[in-house]
Amino acid sequence: MKLNIALLPGDGIGPDVVEQAVKSLQAVADAFGHTFHFEEALVGAVAIDKTGDPLPEETLEVCRRSHAVLFGAIGDPKYDNDPKAKVRPEQGLLKLRKSLGLFTNIRPVKAYPTLIEKSPLKKEIISGTDFTIYRELTGGIYFGEKKLSENGTVASDLCEYSEAEIERIAHLAFKAARSRRNKLTLVDKANVLETSRLWRRVVTAIGKSYPDVELDFLFVDNAAMQIILNPGQFDVILTENMFGDIISDEGSVIGGSIGLLASASVGSDNAMFEPIHGSYPQAKGKDIANPVASILSAAMLLEHFNLKEEAEAVKNAVEKSLEKGVVTPDLDKDSKFGTNKVGDFIADFILHAEDTTQVNKENIE
Ligand code: IPM
Ligand code: MN
């Protein structure tokens, strides 16, 4: 298969981790006889620095002419504490999601047996956790009208959803549940918000076409509690934009590091793959960032194009690295391995999986 992949490394550790994901994709191309063509473009604070725009038109064009986008991270502290900043790096990511129509964000949460001790949560609680969050990504409070009164003392952000916006992601979430353990949980705040009541009505109606999927509802405050009390109860969680943002960071604690969580953002014509972690600017270029979330995002890219065996090869290689302790310091503070070594190990394992004896800790030290 020939794929054109746009690379948007972005800010902070984005470039560090995207480089490792590219190594894995290149290894897949070599091992399975595919051709992946990569084209890099600017986004975020680096794009503002070079062009004044967090999402230059040229970047959008590169994304549009590619089959998929591999995204790094976005954000720079110099914009975070400046309430008057007119342009912000995050606007680049939001505009990209909107312009490419990426309305569904898929975030798998898993407790890896080999990392079970790394989580701050008790292992009896998280053991066996395996759920996926379907987060709506192009609507809700993120994109509603924003207002600030003239004297700057009153502000508002509108949260708005239409039936059509809810329907299209709900179908994808029901289908996902069908291919998993047949359970879908809608997370909302229907006891308070009108938009949440609309979500319940639309999702309940759609549920009638998926009688084999058990549908239940949780208020988001309770969901936040249940995710760390009893994460094993979840299969697919469906939720709106901001709730999904919040509970997916919470979910990352289960796996032991936010550096492990991958995501896919899909729409009708395009797809983008990105780690859920932020730009972690303190670690930029220090060879300590965990590349696994980015590499697993590349695996989701392969799955998206139905390259199942290839995606499995990447995931197996990642699991092998975790098993062998070839991990970055976020997972083992005494680790001797950095971003690059972990990336090399995984790429190497993809290429030589049949001979695991060649790939061991000693060889890459
Ligand atoms: C995420 C991030 C983004 C979001 C930010 C960077 C705008 O936190 O992808 O979860 O809030 O969606
Ligand atoms: Mn987030």
TrEMBL record:
<keyword id="KW-0028">Amino-acid biosynthesis</keyword>
<dbReference type="GO" id="GO:0005829">
    <property type="term" value="C:cytosol"/>
</dbReference>
<feature type="binding site">
    <location>
        <position position="135"/>
    </location>
    <ligand>
        <name>substrate</name>
    </ligand>
</feature>
<dbReference type="InterPro" id="IPR024084">
    <property type="entry name" value="IsoPropMal-DH-like_dom"/>
</dbReference>
<feature type="binding site">
    <location>
        <position position="249"/>
    </location>
    <ligand>
        <name>Mg(2+)</name>
    </ligand>
</feature>
<feature type="binding site">
    <location>
        <position position="221"/>
    </location>
    <ligand>
        <name>substrate</name>
    </ligand>
</feature>
<dbReference type="Pfam" id="PF00180">
    <property type="entry name" value="Iso_dh"/>
</dbReference>
<keyword id="KW-0100">Branched-chain amino acid biosynthesis</keyword>
<dbReference type="InterPro" id="IPR004429">
    <property type="entry name" value="Isopropylmalate_DH"/>
</dbReference>
<keyword id="KW-0464">Manganese</keyword>
<comment type="similarity">
    <text>Belongs to the isocitrate and isopropylmalate dehydrogenases family. LeuB type 1 subfamily.</text>
</comment>
<comment type="subunit">
    <text>Homodimer.</text>
</comment>
<dbReference type="GO" id="GO:0003862">
    <property type="term" value="F:3-isopropylmalate dehydrogenase activity"/>
</dbReference>
<feature type="binding site">
    <location>
        <position position="245"/>
    </location>
    <ligand>
        <name>Mg(2+)</name>
    </ligand>
</feature>
<feature type="binding site">
    <location>
        <position position="221"/>
    </location>
    <ligand>
        <name>Mg(2+)</name>
    </ligand>
</feature>
<comment type="pathway">
    <text>Amino-acid biosynthesis; L-leucine biosynthesis; L-leucine from 3-methyl-2-oxobutanoate: step 3/4.</text>
</comment>
<keyword id="KW-0479">Metal-binding</keyword>
<dbReference type="GO" id="GO:0009098">
    <property type="term" value="P:L-leucine biosynthetic process"/>
</dbReference>
<comment type="function">
    <text>Catalyzes the oxidation of 3-carboxy-2-hydroxy-4-methylpentanoate (3-isopropylmalate) to 3-carboxy-4-methyl-2-oxopentanoate. The product decarboxylates to 4-methyl-2 oxopentanoate.</text>
</comment>
<protein>
    <recommendedName>
        <fullName>3-isopropylmalate dehydrogenase</fullName>
        <ecNumber>1.1.1.85</ecNumber>
    </recommendedName>
</protein>
<keyword id="KW-0963">Cytoplasm</keyword>
<keyword id="KW-0520">NAD</keyword>
<keyword id="KW-0460">Magnesium</keyword>
<feature type="domain" description="Isopropylmalate dehydrogenase-like">
    <location>
        <begin position="4"/>
        <end position="346"/>
    </location>
</feature>
<feature type="binding site">
    <location>
        <position position="97"/>
    </location>
    <ligand>
        <name>substrate</name>
    </ligand>
</feature>
<feature type="site" description="Important for catalysis">
    <location>
        <position position="189"/>
    </location>
</feature>
<dbReference type="InterPro" id="IPR019818">
    <property type="entry name" value="IsoCit/isopropylmalate_DH_CS"/>
</dbReference>
<keyword id="KW-0432">Leucine biosynthesis</keyword>
<dbReference type="GO" id="GO:0000287">
    <property type="term" value="F:magnesium ion binding"/>
</dbReference>
<feature type="site" description="Important for catalysis">
    <location>
        <position position="142"/>
    </location>
</feature>
<dbReference type="GO" id="GO:0051287">
    <property type="term" value="F:NAD binding"/>
</dbReference>
<keyword id="KW-0560">Oxidoreductase</keyword>
<feature type="binding site">
    <location>
        <position position="107"/>
    </location>
    <ligand>
        <name>substrate</name>
    </ligand>
</feature>
